[in-house]
Amino acid sequence: MTKQYWLVKSEPDAFSWDQQVANQVEPWTGVRNHMAKNNLKAMRKGDLAFFYHSNIGKEIVGVVEVAREAYPDPTAESGDWVCVDMKAVGPMPTPVTLATIKADPTLAELALVRQSRLSVMPISPDHWKQLCRMGGWKRR
Distance between CA 27 and CA 137 in Å, rounded? Predict the structure, then answer.
């Protein structure tokens, strides 16, 4: 099966990259948007995702890997909400800001630009490679 790529957003004052690194593997809970939930359900173990600080910073700060596929979100009081477990892989050598992303015409179709409120979004392989280049990410 082909590896898929994603971007997951977190407000750093709620859950930051440093907390992800300290915890190593962490459930990605609290998603309450149906499109984002469907994206979580589509994730497969081994998929990679950019860790994006929203609100404060607005930049890709690291890379995480799906360590456990979708299961019921323990923070949900009702509904069929899910979470996945994310494992820290490493920091982005140079954080990639939203302003830098928006300035690159090859990234105009990126969900981060087009659907900025979505907290979990797919990233095409071409966009993944471009964003990795921009941030100096060389692993895998």
Answer: 24
Distance (Å, whole) CA 83 – CA 115: 21
- Give the Cα separation of 46 and 71 in Å (integer): 16
> What one-letter code names the amino acid at 14?
A
Q: Give CA–CA dist 124/127, Å, rounded.
A: 5
Q: What are the helix and strand counts (H, E) for the chain?
A: 5, 6
DSSP label at residue 7? E
Express each pLDDT in 6-39 by its tens digit. Answer: 999 999 999 999 999 999 999 999 999 999 999 9
Cα 74-80-83 angle, rounded to 5 deg: 45
The pLDDT assigned to 69 comes to 98
Closest CA to 61 of 93, 84, 35: 93
Q: Where are the domains of the chain?
A: 5-135
How is residue 26 written in tokens?
Answer: 């962490």
Could you please state the CATH topology (level 3) that the domain comprising 5-135 is classified under. ph1033 like fold (3.10.590)
